[in-house]
């Protein structure tokens, strides 16, 4: 029991000794600092400048104009002439599809069209002649059958008039007793026969005229049908469509740009998007902003973009679009159920590059400062120089010149714009030349220090 207490006592003495050594070392160091004076990184001399509140984000350079290259043909892909990263110009050949079957179809269709056109031309010529003849026969005085029939009608009409007059005269004579009833009956029969002849000749004339009109209408209909078939372009249109399919088998670049993806595979049928081209004429930066910062970001805010290839050169930009939905991988519900994968969501922000001589390339990794707020002619101090006093006021320590040293004083300040490392401050004692201590916890009010 005595041995145990003795060991504890020895350990306690050792710890006390270590603490004393540390205190003495700190005192010696502080004394050395006070004697030599504070280094320049231990204080800030106030002067007016700019205060920028910004968010630093990462992303990459992309095109704001992406063209998907499709073809209407489902033919086999014979050759793809480009690869990812190739720069192409509008009209450059990107891929070739197999055209052997198409070429045969076009040749067969053109031969069929030639035969059909010759046949239809012959039919049209014959129909034209028949129509012209029928039209001629329908004109007055041109049809001999009509002329003969009209002559027969006229003769029958004269005979009818004569037989009618004779019959009327004989009726008077019979009443006077000048002729017999038999003679009267004969004249009546002759009159009725003349009526029948006239009626029959009139019907015959109308039948001939009807037939001429029917022949004319039939000839006209046949001509119009033959003309329609001759002028029909459906076969020609079908050939043109086949030729367009043939042309589509040579896949051309629709615009200048960089090949960003190749989906088609040689030997497989062409379907969907074969390739993707990103235009180099309209470059944007796509940046990822954390959900904690997304509410601070607004359209129109200035952005300063940098890449490894452009070094320290700042490329000016402007926010033009903020996605309303987080990136897809951040919305995976399976991940959200697993706490180990529950990472902060990120939102894509599109930045228009305003510097026309940017020399940026699609796919470059980039960083950017989104300027949330910027003020000029303000004072700013390091974050760590501000602390709270017992009344919860924001305060700083300043060093005022006194004799050969500097006297530490406590002053209240109001905070303004904040950036990653600095805070804008205002207050009664804030002016040019004031010395602010960066590490106030290392000092006490009323302490006199030296400054290098």
Automatic annotation (TrEMBL):
Pfam families (UniProt xref): Beta-barrel_YknX (PF25990)
The UniProt record lists the keyword Ribonucleoprotein: no
SUPFAM superfamilies per the UniProt record, alphabetical: HlyD-like secretion proteins (SSF111369)
Transmembrane segments: 12-34
Predominant place of localization: other
One cellular component term from this protein's GO annotations in UniProt: cell envelope
Entry keyword Transmembrane helix: yes
Domain YknX-like beta-barrel per the UniProt entry, residue ranges: 288-370
InterPro entries: Beta-barrel_YknX, UPF0194_transport
UniProtKB keywords: Coiled coil, Membrane, Transmembrane, Transmembrane helix
Localization per record: Cell envelope
Coiled-coil intervals: 99-166
Gene3D superfamilies: 2.40.30.170, 2.40.50.100, Helix hairpin bin
The protein, known as: YknX-like beta-barrel domain-containing protein
Organism name: Clostridium kluyveri (strain ATCC 8527 / DSM 555 / NBRC 12016 / NCIMB 10680 / K1)
Lineage: Bacteria, Bacillati, Bacillota, Clostridia, Eubacteriales
């Amino acid at each position: 029991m005595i041995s145990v207490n003795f060991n504890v006592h020895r350990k306690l003495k050792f710890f006390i000794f270590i603490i004393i050594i540390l205190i003495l070392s700190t005192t010696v160091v502080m004394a050395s600092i006070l004697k030599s004076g504070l280094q320049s990184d231990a204080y800030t001399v106030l002067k007016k400048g700019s205060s920028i509140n910004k968010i630093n984000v990462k992303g990459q350079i992309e095109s704001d104009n992406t063209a998907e290259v499709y073809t209407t043909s489902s033919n086999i892909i014979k050759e793809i002439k480009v690869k990812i990263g190739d720069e192409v110009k509008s009209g450059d050949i990107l891929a070739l599809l197999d055209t052997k079957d198409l070429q045969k179809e076009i040749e067969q269709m053109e031969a069929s069209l030639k035969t059909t056109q010759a046949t239809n031309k012959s039919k049209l010529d014959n129909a034209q002649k028949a129509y012209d003849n029928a039209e001629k026969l329908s004109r007055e005085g041109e049809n001999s059958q009509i002329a003969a029939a009209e002559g027969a009608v006229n003769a029958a009409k004269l005979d009818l008039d004569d037989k009618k007059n004779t019959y009327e005269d004989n009726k008077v004579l019979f009443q006077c007793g000048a002729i017999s009833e038999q003679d009267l009956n004969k004249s009546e029969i002759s009159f009725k026969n003349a009526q029948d002849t006239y009626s029959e000749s009139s019907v015959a004339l109308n039948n001939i005229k009807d037939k001429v009109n029917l022949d004319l209408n039939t000839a006209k209909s046949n001509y119009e049908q033959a003309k329609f078939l001759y002028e029909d372009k459906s076969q020609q249109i079908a050939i043109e469509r086949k030729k367009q399919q043939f042309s589509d088998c040579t896949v051309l670049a629709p615009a200048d740009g960089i090949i960003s993806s190749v989906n088609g595979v040689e030997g497989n049928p062409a379907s969907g998007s074969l390739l993707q081209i990103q235009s180099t004429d309209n470059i944007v930066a796509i940046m990822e902003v954390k959900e904690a910062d997304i509410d601070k970001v607004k359209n129109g805010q200035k952005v300063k973009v940098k890449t490894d290839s452009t070094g320290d050169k700042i490329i000016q930009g402007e926010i033009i679009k903020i996605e309303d939905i987080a990136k897809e991988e951040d919305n995976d519900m399976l991940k959200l159920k697993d706490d180990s994968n529950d990472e902060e969501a990120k939102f894509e922000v599109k930045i228009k590059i305003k510097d026309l001589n940017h020399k940026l390339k699609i796919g470059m990794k980039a960083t950017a400062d989104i300027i949330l707020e910027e003020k000029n002619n303000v004072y700013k101090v390091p974050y760590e120089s501000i602390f709270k006093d017992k009344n919860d006021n924001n305060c700083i320590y300043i060093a005022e010149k006194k004799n050969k040293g500097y006297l530490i004083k406590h002053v209240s300040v109001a905070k303004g714009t904040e950036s990653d490392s600095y805070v804008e401050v205002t207050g009664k004692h804030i002016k040019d030349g004031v010395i602010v201590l960066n590490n106030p916890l290392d000092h006490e009010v009323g302490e006199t220090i030296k400054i290098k």
